[in-house]
Amino acid sequence: MNNTCRPSFATSNTRDMGVYLHIPFCRKKCSYCDFASYEGLEAYYDDYVTALCTEIKLWAKKYPESTSIPVQTIYFGGGTPTQLSIPQIEHILNVLYKHYPCNDVIEVSMEANPGEIDKSYLQDLKSLGVTRLSYGVQTFDDSLLTLLRRGHTSSMAKQAITDALSVGFQSVSGDLIYALPGQHLKDIETNVKTLVDLGVSHISIYGLQLEEGTNLHKQVEQGQLLLPSDDENEAMYDCMLDQLASYGFERYEISNFTNNQAYSHHNLRYWQYKEYLAFGAGAYSFYTDVRRNNEPYVVPYITRLRQELLPVVFEETISETRSVEDFCFLALRTKWGLSKLNFEQRFNQSLLTIFGNELEHLNKQGLLQQVNDSWCLTRDGAKHGNYVFSQFIR
Ligand code: SF4
User: What is the pTM of this model?
Assistant: First the structure.
């Protein structure tokens, strides 16, 4: 780990904004997914787009001061944003551009699923200014893809990435999930190697999270599927880290890797504790130290916006104590780590005064190391991230 290639905005005091746009539709609901995403709602796409655009306008009206902050990143997440047509995406962007200053945007990112869009759609996305694509690949094992109820095969995933690169997207990312039922070390190696060989510049890896209420959770609970043991999980995790490093992919966040500084600038905002607005059903925003989340279900979301009501169902002002905790553990997730200077600038207090004992203790345990002005996770620290982060809870 080092902090020599900090993005220019990482230490910037100027205020800028990220915008997250949630598109909660999927062609098929995956067996492990508990996100706000739904299949079979095609009939609502038009009404949803109208509602989302109304939400942007209402926000701009209710919080006029937010409309003077330059937007730096735009992220279409889901769900599967590419379920929408190009005119629908264009309409959303135009409404956003009309109400928020978007001249300084450095990244427009979009999540996509393999096998659902063709080259002509990709070309149109590029023409709309989308700069980055993030594909949910998950694995190149067809039987596991079927088990996860993914809507694509391994050959579709390869084709999708090849198409995106051939159309000229410079920044293409692939997500992988490890610790899947029946998965072995060899599968993991194949997955990473295949993604790298395809030419992606960014890879995200996530351990399977078994979420209650999902089909996969039921299957595991009923003993129909067996998950790898903790030791096997750890071996897979270590194997991926070594393999990615050997391919020249640096880890810049616990789950994210790039071989040419193709960072997800929007996601960096989350770890840098910066503000973002979020529109759409189930979306979470963070603005002026207030976290808000929206109505997660599509029909009530649309209904509220038809009545010109903001769809916020929960709102919480973050206390100073909680801000300090969040700031620390989010910063520690990244390779730039927890900077003493950034902390002091943000909170007008010395990091060492508040957390001196914890930092020293974690350092002695080999979980944190000091790099110039910052405290960073060691490789062991990243493996035991939850323990390290818990030390910053006051
Ligand atoms: S495509 Fe993504 S959001 Fe949609 S169901 Fe699958 S995991 Fe969930």
Answer: 0.94
